[in-house]
Hints:
The complex is a heterodimer.
Chain A: H1 3-42, H2 45-79, H3 81-115, H4 122-151, E1 156-159, E2 162-165, H5 168-172, H6 175-209, E3 214-215, E4 221-222, H7 234-272, H8 274-281, E5 290-296, E6 306-312, H9 315-321, H10 331-342, H11 366-393, H12 403-412, H13 414-429, E7 434-436, E8 450-451, H14 462-498, H15 500-503, H16 513-516
Antiparallel strand pairs in A: 1-2, 3-4, 5-6, 7-8
Helix pairs in contact in A: 1-2, 1-4, 1-6, 1-13, 1-14, 2-3, 2-7, 2-14, 3-4, 4-6, 6-7, 6-11, 6-12, 6-13, 7-8, 7-11, 8-11, 11-13
Chain B: H1 4-35, H2 40-50, H3 54-71, H4 73-82, H5 84-103, H6 110-140, H7 160-184, H8 188-204, H9 206-219, H10 223-244, H11 248-270, E1 273-275, E2 285-286, H12 294-321
Helix pairs in contact in B: 1-2, 1-3, 1-6, 1-7, 1-11, 1-12, 3-4, 3-12, 5-6, 6-7, 7-8, 7-9, 7-11, 8-10, 9-10, 9-11, 10-11
Amino acid sequence: xxxxxxxxxQFGITTVYHFMMVPLTLGLGLLVAILHTMxxxxxxxxxxxxxxxxxxxxxxxxxxxxxxxxxxxxxFGMAWSEYSRFVGDVFGAPLAMEGLLAFFVExxxxxxxxxxxxxxxxxxxxxxxxxxxxxxxxxxxxxxxxNSWMQHPVGVExxxxxxxxxxxxxVLTNNTLLAxxxxxxxxxxxxxxGFLLGIxxxxxxxxxxxxxxxxxxxxxxxxxxxxxxxxxxxxxxRVWITSLRIGAVVAIVGFGAVAITGDIQGKLMYEQxxxxxxxxxxxxxxxxxxxxxxxxxxxAQDCDKVTPVIEIPGLLSFLAKGDFTTDVPGINELIPEYExxxxxxxxxxxxxxxxxGQEIQYLPIMEVxxxxxxxxxxxxxxxxxxxxxxxxxxxxxxxPNSKPLxxxxxxxxxxxxxxxxxxxxxxxxxxxxxxxxxxxxxxxVDGVFMFTAAAVSPGVDGFEIVFSLVTxxxxxxxxxxxxxxxxxxxTRAGIAGVMPERFAPHDDDxxxxxxxxxxxxxxxx
Amino acid sequence: xxxxxxxxxxxxxxxxxxxxxxEGFDLGVGMHMLFSARDDxxxxxxxNTIGPVWDGNEVWLLTAGAGTFAAFPLWYASLxxxxxxxxxLVLLGLILRAVAIEYRGKLVSRSWTRFWDWxxxxxxxxxxxxxxxGLALTTTGLPINENGDRVGGxxxxxxxxAILGGLALVGFCLVHxxxxxxxxxDGPVRERMGRLVPRLAPIALLPIAGWAILVELQGGGNxxxxxxxxxxxxxxxxxxxxxxxxxEGRAFTGFAAFGALxxxxxxxxxxxxxxxxxxxxxxxxxIWNAASGTYTLTVMTxxxxxxxxxxxxxxxxxxxxxxxxxxxxxxxxxHDPVPAVRTTxx
Lengths: 525, 346
């Protein structure tokens, strides 16, 4: 087995998996910090309940992002040592800054927040959460700086066959990064919005199904209570309807921001990686039309087998250039340009090992780029549309007593996750066959690019990468199941599950000394 | 001769030492949860001593790794690819352990708790062993060729030195963790750990001393490394005396100083070689041939000089916030999340 192929699968699987947890961490963290702020400012218990509930789900998810993130940092050196050697002068710096300036802040202050209830002054305690969330956002900035450099290498000179950093500021203000960061963060916020929406919908539905809330003749909610079910008081309804509305609005706003920043990214991509843009479109011939649907053998790496079925004239030009008439170069025009500049076969260099002399496929796997691009946009738009519909349906204060609709709302949580994953798969696989894409701008530095085929560790054999792929894959699979079970358990338990002391059934045995002692910790593992 | 690679050699040594000192007791506590706890209450007391701080401590590892990548990319690339299998095991340990710490108390069920206890205990042991082996190998040598790539199969790293290094870090973490528990708990755990440390330390600290001496002998040593090693031994002996008389704070300081001085001695002894080649000394990676350019090192020096003192300040503050000893009666009762559902449909 070719170590290169396995190492690529491993990087793809571990990264996509990591990025299931991360957007939720980034987005939900921000929302929990806002909810906590509302509680500190108003003193309304509704906000405290929301902080505790969403905070608990945030933490269950957070740790998975932390745990799977360590793999990312290690595997550059483990499986991609030639890559690490080639880019080390540039690429290690943002990773080290991420640790020094972001991870320390994030993890130290999150520890203070988790265990700081009743121990820190209220406002200091709130500040610890904000610092943790800001830390996680800064970490996203640095890792996107590293990734953006792979998409569009800047701030370097080419010395002795390697890029050498000459301007860190250029790396940290790379125009690719300035577009990718808001795009990614907006996507993360949209994920969190959908999460709040789906889970709140479940609780409002549960209250209706259990006969706690009813509706009057005009469909307006009549809020009730069920004293025998811990947590199901009148205030409980306010928790969920407020959460639902916040979630829906956040999902819609998030998607809007994703669309605007995505448009900026598309225009940059047209300049920086024209072949990726063309492959996203299956645009074989130079032209202006956006393909709504193309059929044929997209994966055949052969343009003759692709047939556009529905096209919108002018739209592709608008996506790439902002007008309706500029021709966007197609695959048939671009590939000869790449072949002329970067060769038709991998160079006869020891770093390519047995792969030296192989023909270079400049066209990314079009099935992936074409559908990745469409799933990203489609799932994102679908989630935003569903959020708008949800706002309308719940305008009278509750959800319909319908189980399928509730299931749809829960299932809909997955759509923004899918959009995020598809977007990353598209942009990373669309960069192939390069791991560091050449920069065709006038500002670009000649020679600063790297074929993925050269990046893998020469000393590591296939067995080792299979071993790590299988073991990590198995552990990831088990942990995914465990996380979902835990999220489901805490979701179903609602507020009483996260504030047990507040809703604990009263103990009449008189033996509640332990509960009354004032030195009992507010929270402990 | 450029001073920056030397600065960064010291910086990497400081980051690794910081990691060993801080996460050292986390890993030790994790192992003691499996081997030295009598019941679930003990395990919860132990876990909660590191609860608020363990994640921040682990960032020292990430920063040591990323700092190596930034400052000495060739060292990072050769070491991490050569130690592929042990690092996979370390990663599995880190993942399971991290998730276990967070998830253990989230449900109340015997099998759930047991599963995560094993994950914490074994995960901690594997992490300590794997990283100890890796550090021992980077100070004594691996079979790398002129490109820095491993020659030989996936298991050429598995040598007596690797086992010595693995045992060294496991042993140190056990002592350090037990001393930490004696310092941070009250009740039966404090009592038992107080009795355990003086008996455990003389045996468990032998491998790390062996590793330090091995490194001295191999390179001929230098006055600085020998001095640090001597001071380390003094600190260790003092720690042992304090542990025997149950002066927990001083014992902790003594063993921590032993760890810091011992690590310092090892790094000083290998300087300036960061990864010797056992094939040909011409292939040795040194701070001179493995380092990034001057500009990168300058940028990283500025960032680290500004950030690290601030990190130390707020981490110290978090230890101060959670300075109280944990006793069994401090722990709130564990609650299982119960579905908020009407069981008999209305």
